[in-house]
Design goal:
Helices cover 67% and strands 0% of the residues. It is mainly alpha-helical. The longest helix is centred in the last third of the chain and has 26 residues. The protein is elongated and about 75 Å long.
């Protein structure tokens, strides 16, 4: 358990770097074409650096624009443009901890509500206050245990 927590903390620090660039919009033409045009590099010059045809460069630029380019192709294009490819993941919740918290709360709510419905059928219904407390307690336990079912 402690090892997983340490892994999460270390990864969280690495991912934080990418948070600030999350809102950076991708150029409508894609990065390769945008950089190529901004630097004044012709299709032929980039093709020569990549040892491919001009048509192949156009295809690469179109694949990037359409989101179907491979990381390998992006890395090669970046290298040909004397740049480094940088990529990473940014949690939609803002942090890995917040992501785990949300998933734990969702699962806890599902578990507690299912149990509550069973109790309701047996005329032993809990109050909303008690349900909120049970969800919080269960979410806390799930967060510390981080069972695989959290990601189903």
């Amino acid at each position: 358990m402690r090892a997983r927590s340490l892994q999460l903390d270390q990864l969280e620090r690495k991912l934080k770097v990418y948070s600030s660039i999350k809102s950076t919009p991708i150029p409508p033409t894609g990065w390769i074409k945008a950089v190529r045009l901004a630097l004044g590099i012709s299709l032929q010059q980039l093709a020569t650096k990549l040892s491919i045809t001009r048509q192949s460069v156009l295809e690469i630029e179109n694949r990037e624009k359409n989101g179907s380019i491979t990381i390998k192709s992006l890395r090669e294009a970046a290298n040909a443009l004397d740049m480094d490819l940088v990529y990473g993941f940014v949690p939609k919740d803002g942090s890995l901890d917040a992501l785990v918290e949300r998933k734990a709360r969702e699962l806890a709510t599902k578990i507690v509500r299912r149990t509550s419905n069973t109790m309701k059928l047996e005329a032993q219904e809990n109050s909303e206050s008690r349900l909120r407390t049970a969800i919080s307690e269960r979410a806390s336990a799930l967060k510390s245990e981080m069972p695989k079912v959290l990601w189903d």
